[in-house]
């Protein structure tokens, strides 16, 4: 049998004494209030990204807009799933997910965009994805081994944000040259 740093009887006793803390035990090594703040900032980012993609989906127009709009809708749905994962993790850690619309853009790492031009929409979405990638990479590194579950949530989001960025880059590359310069 493996040796534990803490004997099992002590672990059992702490588990009973601190039952109200749910999954957060003495083994949790991160700064919980800061982790909750970071999670809520990421939640705001995902909500703003969902709204931006939805706007672009509904307002995309022109000869090349159909496949681009379909990509916008797919990304909007995936960003909404990201928001749900983050809100779930916040609650698991004993926090409250902040959905306050009055403060969303101030807490979000990404910006909202109301571009009317299809190329500009794609470019702004790509910038937002790159911001999320950079932010989530830093968060993963910051969390390290102190909160492996939250780190995995961000790793999953990061992988999908990288896919989104690749998709958007591909859309830009497939547009005719004269359209990209518009």
Automatic annotation (TrEMBL):
InterPro entries: Dps-like, Ferritin-like, Ferritin-like_diiron, Ferritin-like_SF, Ferritin_DPS_dom
Pfam families membership: Ferritin (PF00210)
Source organism, top-level taxon: Bacteria
Residue intervals of the Ferritin-like diiron domain: 29-179
GO cellular component: cytosol
GO molecular function, one term: heme binding
Protein name as annotated: Bacterioferritin
Gene source species: Actinacidiphila alni
């Amino acid at each position: 049998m493996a040796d534990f740093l803490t004997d099992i009887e002590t672990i059992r006793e702490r588990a009973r004494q601190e039952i109200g803390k749910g999954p957060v035990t003495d083994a949790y090594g991160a700064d919980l209030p800061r982790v909750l703040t970071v999670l809520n900032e990421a939640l705001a980012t995902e909500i703003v990204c969902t709204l931006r993609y939805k706007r672009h989906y509904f307002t995309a127009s022109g000869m090349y807009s159909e496949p681009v709009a379909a990509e916008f809708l797919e990304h909007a749905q995936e960003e909404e799933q990201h928001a749900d994962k983050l809100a779930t993790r916040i609650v698991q850690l004993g926090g409250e997910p902040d959905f306050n619309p009055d403060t969303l853009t101030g807490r979000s790492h990404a910006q909202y965009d109301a571009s009317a031009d299809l190329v500009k929409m794609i470019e702004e979405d790509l910038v937002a994805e790159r911001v999320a990638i950079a932010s989530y990479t830093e968060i993963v590194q910051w969390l390290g081994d102190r909160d492996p579950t939250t780190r995995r949530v961000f790793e999953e989001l990061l992988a999908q944000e990288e896919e989104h960025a690749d998709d958007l880059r591909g859309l830009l590359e497939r547009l005719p040259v004269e359209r990209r310069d518009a």
